[in-house]
Amino acid sequence: MLRIAVPNKGSLSGPAGEMLHEAGYQQRKASKELVLVDPENDVEFFYLRPRDIAIYVSSGRLDIGITGRDLLLDSGARAEEVLPLGFARSTFRYAAKPGTVSTLDDLAGLTVATSYEGIVAKHLADKGIDASVVHLDGAVETAIELGVAQVIADVVETGTSLRNAGLEIAGEPILESEAVVIRRTGADPHGPKVQQFLRRLQGVLVARSYVMMDYDIRAEHLEQAVALTPGLESPTISPLHDQGWVAVRSMVRTTEAQRIMDDLYDLGARAILTTGIHACRL
Ligand SMILES: Nc1ncnc2c1ncn2[C@@H]1O[C@H](COP(=O)(O)OP(=O)(O)OP(=O)(O)O)[C@@H](O)[C@H]1O
Ligand SMILES: O=P(O)(O)OC[C@H]1O[C@H](OP(=O)(O)OP(=O)(O)O)[C@H](O)[C@@H]1O
Ligand SMILES: [Mg+2]
């Protein structure tokens, strides 16, 4: 049975559960459930603190886990990213009172408060900056106001938390993060159960970002139309009863669908339809 670590709370938890549900797996009904066996799919889910997931996976006791790239790197655990999942996107940045820190060199001699001590200590060492790091569990934006540090390093998504605390970003992002699937470093990458799990999640990612587009076009414009909708491999072309026309079916990116429909219409295509994809295997 495949053993999978899933975040039990925080920003990763809800979207991870939704993605697993869309991939056809049973998910827990109550947020207090810690373990769930899904016998039909031959998997067992362990709901763990997001910060602990890389450690469990690196120990080899669990086969696979969903966590944040930033949490994986911060843990220093021997686990590696195998599939980015596109949710819980954030950047990890330094911030300070306006006018106090403009370049990384200005951090020298200062104290940085963070919940991600592993990432920050490594970044400072890599850049050769001699600054102190103080570990706090959360709400680090307040550390500057309360005099515990002059700088913070934290997750930034919209920037609202920084603005509310009267802070501004200092320097370039330390890293860009999103939810990722992780495995123990060096684990057999070809195990059939793991491959099936990854294919299911990839299917969800594709279903979320593509729609199926169908349209009719005069045969003489087919090549131009196909250039607009090349599909993932190649579009399906079917004859229509009226021999001057053909029907085309192709997958297109959801974000580009409206522009492509306009361009196809201008080319003379008609009966242009898009339909959602619920699940797929590529
Ligand atoms: N506001 C946010 N937007 C997007 N991703 C976020 C946000 N806050 C945290 N994350 C991501 O969530 C993961 C951290 O999960 P974790 O559960 O520890 O913290 P949290 O979501 O801040 O929840 P909490 O602080 O309530 O425990 C990291 O990968 C981080 O990048
Ligand atoms: O840029 P924003 O959209 O404001 O998001 C970033 C904030 O979200 C997270 O905080 P959370 O609410 O999880 O509190 P925490 O600091 O206790 O983790 C993170 O630690 C930042 O504070
Ligand atoms: Mg948080």
The DSSP helix count reads 9
Shape: globular
Distance between the termini: 24 Å
The number of domains is: 3
Architecture (CATH level 2) name of the largest domain: 3-Layer(aba) Sandwich
Order of helices and strands: EHEEHEHEEEHEHEHEEHEHEEHE
User: Low-confidence parts, pLDDT < 50 over ≥5 residues?
Assistant: none
Mean pLDDT: 97
Q: Name the CATH superfamily classification of the largest domain.
A: Periplasmic binding protein-like II
Give the biggest sheet: 6 strands, mixed
* Unique bound compounds: adenosine-5'-triphosphate, 1-O-pyrophosphono-5-O-phosphono-alpha-D-ribofuranose, magnesium ion
Specify Rg, calculated over alpha carbons. 24 Å
Structural class: alpha/beta
The first-level CATH class name of the largest domain: Alpha Beta
Helix content: 25-40%
Strand content: 25-35%
Care to count the β-strands?
Answer: 15
CATH fold type of the largest domain:
D-Maltodextrin-Binding Protein, domain 2
Task: Provide structural commentary.
With 282 residues, this protein is α/β, with parallel strands linked by helices. The strands form three sheets. A six-stranded mixed sheet has the order 2-3-1-4-11-5. A five-stranded mixed sheet has the order 8-7-9-6-10. The chain has helices at residues 13-22, 53-59, 69-75, 117-127, 142-145, 160-164, 192-209, 222-228, 257-267, and strands at 2-7, 35-38, 43-48, 64-68, 79-84, 90-96, 111-114, 132-135, 151-156, 168-177, 179-184, 210-218, 236-239, 245-253, 270-276. The longest helix has 18 residues, at 192-209. The model has no long low-confidence stretch (mean pLDDT 97). The chain folds into three domains: 2-87 and 178-189, Periplasmic binding protein-like II (D-Maltodextrin-Binding Protein, domain 2); 90-176, Periplasmic binding protein-like II (D-Maltodextrin-Binding Protein, domain 2, 3-Layer(aba) Sandwich); 211-276, 2-Layer Sandwich (Alpha-Beta Plaits), CATH 3.30.70. The protein is globular, with a radius of gyration of 24 Å. The relative contact order is 0.14. Helix content is 28%, strand content 33%. Bound molecules: adenosine-5'-triphosphate, 1-O-pyrophosphono-5-O-phosphono-alpha-D-ribofuranose and magnesium ion. 1-O-pyrophosphono-5-O-phosphono-alpha-D-ribofuranose binds next to strand 9 and helix 6. The site of adenosine-5'-triphosphate has 15 residues, from helix 3.
